[in-house]
Design brief:
The complex is a heterodimer. By secondary structure, chain A is α/β, with parallel strands linked by helices. Chain A is built from 19 helices and 15 strands. Chain A has an eight-stranded mixed β-sheet with strand order 10-9-8-11-12-15-13-14, sandwiched between helices. The two termini of chain A are 53 Å apart. Classes of the chains: A alpha/beta, B alpha/beta. Chains A and B meet through helix 1, helix 6, helix 7, helix 8 and helix 17 of A and strand 4, strand 6, helix 3, helix 4 and helix 8 of B.
């Protein structure tokens, strides 16, 4: 136990390293970035470099200095509103004459330019709101200070990425990229799907890889995940933001959705062995073309590759490539000879071929994992109509395993429900949604937050069981074992 | 079987869930030679269960049948013997995600109660994490120990019989997350803080009453917790039905002309039939909210212990 703890500890403590994926937090706003030296980050109208964060602990707070540097803040700042002096009881004497703030807009801008700390600014503003601030109720004063500090706060906290933070970030910043999947709904999916270490889970998602990442987080690198992705290639931007160790990716397999039907009908394996050959040949031929003539077009070619990569290859690699491009173009020493770039082009092509082979290999492995139809879980959350997907993918599940389908709309799930009922082999079908309500909890000011999310989507859940037809055969064999008649006899004696 | 690992075949000593249909289930302990009564007749463990696959249909003595399901924390939550009020899966799901639980997490919990949440935590933190759960009621603590052993997860959990408000969790500086479901959670916040790792962690407190949540928030703030957030999650379940709605008879008028239009389009008979149907009722598939639903379980207050 002790040894396990220490392993856990050493992996968890840690400091921020270059190349790590981190979450920036300012107030309630998050952003996922990769820590790279000399890379300008723009976050909440501020720009800075993360260089100084390298070597600091996760959870550290930083102040953005002028020039984009980060200054680490070690102590928690004291409460600004500690002293409540004279305060009014109600607002009967408060008049909105637009003159209560004595500081002008220009004054505030000037303060900003001086690079003063946010708190100092708020203090000055409070000081200069003499009339109204003094007579307003303590409650209003608190909210004034709170509002101002939100606006002028300059500290940025660096956190380790987790499913919670990424789900919060995505629903806030880019809800359409994750099919408007709210974090409480995602939480339900992981629990109702019984996602845990050591299982074999099928994930069909087009939620930027958020659902996939959340599943991988819950599996902790134990077991396998088969990511079924649309034919264009998987999008895993969010998955990368989790910053999983590479070992987690060993258990991740990709399978294009167009291979599902062939896999179910059994034509997949026959086909793939024939198909993969000519593909490889074509690749080699293409490569030779590149090498022989168009030296000059190398860069152009590279771009073309990038395009094909982003459409056919998985986006993770495409992302990497883009990143590399970015770094290269930023590099001032980049004025290299054509020869060098040509060499690079060759390397690239080779790399691409290797990747292609890897991908095919992984696909084959994924197909092998599904062949026995004994997967432990199924999660669907995508922009496609879920019906056909569900009916096909549920075939790969072993009996007595949960499945969860997310849809932003209720109607497609009703259709799924009806069709699953007709198909049989499932129990405990349920269509549900969750409502999430946040509260403001403050002395004498406790109430639900006025705004709540209108809809986090719907879930269809259920459990697989043995199909009827299969069972009939089993029944027949059972009765042959002459245990069944014995039971019946016993039964009559009982009653 | 195990609550943390799927298995295909039912073995002697396993816990299994008997599914009778439509939310009627109960757990059984599979034992050679024993039998279970259901409304469809008797199930004989040695012949009907042992060696069969989880998820298979089992015919009972009266000819009716049931499904035998593999246990999961969610099925267990729906079927466990209550010794206290329990947490249900909707809240559990939120707690698990917002506490950032995963394989390897070290978690402190109090009280153990009926161990509904405990099973879900253990499932999530296995195989490398550990749960320290504190229950001041001796009988309940003993019962929980017995259950964990039965469910083959006892190596992942330590049950302590003490008062968490007075004596804490019995561990310091090792937890990634703390969960409190006790009547006065504010009295345990300092203990929770010391149980959490030095570099920080997450905490959650579950309270049915808002006054409890208020005092807890205050205590959390006094103890330097940040990101304090109180929320409530409600589950809405839908009944899927085909509904027929009658169409009112508005008297004759327009109809004659529409019928005439129909006549022109060849199949007059079919057209008339359709119209007749239309006059009667319209059928559609819909999701109906249940007549009554769980409107409140408790307020969940989450917070973070930060590094500094």
């Amino acid at each position: 136990m002790a040894s396990l703890n220490s392993i856990q500890k050493s992996s968890h403590v840690g400091v921020i390293n270059e190349g790590d994926y981190v979450m920036l937090k300012k107030g309630d706003v998050y952003k996922a970035v990769q820590v790279l030296k000399r890379r300008k980050i723009i976050f909440e109208k501020q720009w800075f470099y993360l260089d100084n964060a390298i070597g600091e602990h996760y959870g550290s707070k930083f102040e953005v200095a002028s020039g984009g540097g980060l200054r680490s803040i070690k102590e928690t700042t004291e409460d600004t509103s500690a002293d409540v002096k004279a305060a009014g009881a109600d607002n009967r004497n408060i008049v909105d004459d637009g003159k209560s703030q004595k500081l002008t807009r220009d004054d505030i801008e000037a303060l900003k330019e001086k690079g003063l700390k946010g708190e100092v600014k708020i203090d000055m503003m409070v000081e200069n709101t003499d009339t109204t601030f003094r007579i307003s109720r303590p409650i209003s004063r608190d909210s004034f200070i709170k509002k101002s500090s939100k606006k002028y706060e300059t500290t940025v906290t660096l956190l380790r990425p987790t499913a919670r933070l990424l789900a919060l970030m995505y629903i806030d910043r880019e809800p359409s990229k994750i099919c408007h999947l709210r974090y409480d709904t995602l939480a339900q999916m992981l629990t109702l799907g019984n996602i845990h270490a050591g299982s074999k889970v099928i994930v069909m998602e087009t939620c930027a890889g958020l659902v996939l990442g959340a599943v991988m987080e819950r599996m902790g690198g134990f077991g396998s995940v088969i990511h079924v992705y649309p034919s264009g290639g998987p999008v895993r931007a969010a998955t990368d933001s989790f910053g999983f160790p590479s070992s987690f990716y060993n258990g991740l397999y990709g399978l294009p959705v167009c291979k599902i039907k062939p896999l179910l009908s059994g034509t997949f394996f026959a086909k793939s062995s024939i198909n993969s050959e000519p593909e490889a040949v074509a690749l080699v031929a293409e490569e030779n073309d590149n090498a022989v003539d168009k030296k000059n077009h190398c860069e152009q070619e590279e771009e073309g590759q990038l395009n094909t990569a982003s459409t056919t290859d998985d986006s993770r690699t495409a992302g990497e490539e883009e990143e590399r491009m970015e770094v290269v173009s930023e590099d001032p020493e980049k004025q290299e000879s054509k020869e060098k770039s040509r060499k690079k082009c060759d390397d690239n092509a080779q790399e691409r071929r290797r990747r292609q082979e890897d991908k095919m290999q992984k696909q084959l492995e994924a197909a092998n994992l599904l062949r026995d139809r004994n997967a432990d879980g199924l999660i669907i959350a995508c922009r496609f109509h879920p019906c056909q997907l569900l009916l096909s993918l549920v075939e790969f599940l072993a009996p007595s395993r949960p499945f969860v389908v997310y849809c932003l709309y209720k109607e497609p799930l009703l259709e799924c429900y009806t069709m699953l009922r007709e198909r049989g082999g499932v129990v405990s079908l349920r269509v549900s949604e969750t409502w999430l309500r946040h509260y403001q909890v403050l002395p004498n000011r406790t109430h639900p937050k006025p705004i709540m999310s209108g809809g986090g989507g719907y879930l269809l859940t259920g459990t697989t069981v043995a199909m009827n037809s299969v069972k009939l055969a089993a029944d027949a064999s059972d009765s042959l074992k002459n245990e069944e008649p014995a039971c019946k006899k016993q039964k009559t004696e009982d009653s | 079987m195990s609550f943390i690992e799927y298995q295909n075949d039912i073995k002697d000593g396993d816990t299994a869930i008997v599914f009778l249909g439509h939310d009627s289930m109960f757990p059984i302990k599979v034992q050679h030679g024993s039998q279970t009564q259901t409304k469809y007749g008797v199930i004989r463990h040695s012949t009907d269960l042992i060696g069969k696959k989880f998820g298979s249909k089992v015919t009972c003595s009266k000819g009716g049948w049931v499904y035998i399901l593999h246990p999961t924390p969610e099925l267990w939550t729906a079927n466990l013997p209550h010794r206290t009020q329990i947490l249900y899966s909707t809240d559990i799901a939120m707690i698990t995600m917002m506490l950032e639980l995963r394989p390897g997490s070290v978690v402190c919990e109090s009280g153990t109660g009926s161990a509904s949440l405990s099973h879900a935590i253990i499932r999530t933190i296995a195989p490398t994490g550990h749960l320290y759960t504190v229950e001041f009621h001796q009988q309940r603590a003993l019962k929980a120990v017995e259950e964990f052993r039965d469910h083959k997860v006892d190596h992942l959990v330590t049950v302590k019989n003490q008062d968490v408000c007075k004596h804490g969790f019995g561990v310091t500086g090792i937890a990634d997350a703390v969960f409190l479901d006790i009547p006065s959670p504010w009295e345990a916040i300092t203990h929770a803080k010391s149980a959490l790792k030095m570099e920080g962690g997450r905490i959650c407190s579950f309270s049915p009453c808002i006054e409890q949540a208020q005092r807890t928030c205050q205590a959390m703030e006094e103890n330097g917790f940040t990101e304090i957030d109180t929320l409530e999650i409600l589950l809405r379940v839908f009944d899927i039905r085909t509904v027929n709605m009658q169409i009112p008879d508005l008297g004759k008028g327009e109809e004659d002309t529409s019928a005439a239009e129909c006549d022109e389009n060849r199949k007059p008979q079919e057209c008339a039939k359709k119209q007749f149907e239309l006059q009667g009722t319209v059928a559609f598939k819909t999701a109906v909210s249940l007549k009554s639903m769980s409107g409140h379980t408790g307020y969940l207050t989450f917070a973070t212990k930060s590094l500094f």
